[in-house]
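User: Last request for today: this protein with pyridoxal-5'-phosphate, please.
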Amino acid sequence: MSDDELYLDASATEPVGEDVIGAMRPFLTEAYANPASAHQPGKTALRALEAARSAFAAGLGGKAEDVVFTSGGTESDNLAIKGISMARMRAMGLGPGRKAGEGGVAGPPRIVISSVEHPAVSASADWLAAWLGFEVVRIPVDAQAHVDLDALGESLEGEAGERTTLVSVMLANNEVGTIEPIRDIVRIVHGHHVPLHVDAVQAAGRIPIRMRDWGIDALAVSGHKFGTPKNLGALLVRGGVPIEPLLSGGGQERGLRSGTQNVAGAVALAIALSDANEKMRRQERDLVTSRDTLIDAVRRVVPQAELTGDPRRRLPGHASFVFPGIAGEALLVDLDAHGIACSSGSACAVGRHELPPTLLAMGIGPEVAQSALRMTFDAPLTRGQIDRIAMALEDSYGRLAGR
Ligand code: PLP
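Assistant: Here's the final one, the structure of the complex with pyridoxal-5'-phosphate:
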């Protein structure tokens, strides 16, 4: 990225720090042995893997034995949604070849998710419906993307609750930055004896997470959102939560994720999370101040702009808007020409011209939803940068709106 390029797409991915690269290097060059090998070099690699596991778990308020290293957020969500649901389905007597009521609860197995989940969760739930006959229940959200807690409680009552294998709600929303009240959600879900999976991909390294203290059963994170190379992540699963592996093989990672472990990747996850948590503590206030200054500046130059998501309970470096009357993609391209890289909401939808699903679930009509713009950053913006963004937006919006 050149110096005059302003990167405002931290929610899509972040750069890898020099110290992370430095910490990985020995495990790619000298200490490269397979951590499953019985010889001394293998033991050295294993020690590094386990030290990384402990440090990484601690950074999320979990325990070393909770951690299953994976290839990232998508795999972690798939493992939680499919793995826990399949294991619980079997325990409920609803496995393939058995009919409802035959030695188990009546009716099909169910999974309950919020209506604003990332496709890694929502498409995994749809897979359970398509292949194993699950009923998928999507809990509505309000106009700021908060999950409707009454609807969640009602969805778990009575015999329907007894058929529910898992509830999945994200900690922070990728499109609009809203932070969900996870501790209230844990209380409701556990009140019905159902486990809770939390997609914390956007939250890890950006807001504090205490997996064990909060009572979360499974937690998915992705390294490239907080400074590791892409395709690294983890699912943390509390012992005692039934879970079936999705990959068959050598039985690494407690049998939950077969495949030779990526020691350098595990080290990267531990170092990058520790760096991100430290940076979070140091700069949180400045990040929030610059976010709110940016939001005010955008509204001043384009009074038609509307902030999406919760104005306060949102990720510290996340500002998202709709600009009624213009196309978000056109705005994105125009800002890019000004050297400002942002997103229309979710990196996964870019290029496919899909409407942002969270905005639709929040009750925003398709016409307005297609005008979404998301600006996300991992360091406080300077006054000069905010002025530059505001000037570019004023210019682009004015042109696109024909003013
Ligand atoms: N969940 C959320 C909330 C995300 O924002 C993303 C990626 O943007 C993912 C899951 C998928 O993570 P990954 O890119 O590591 O597969």
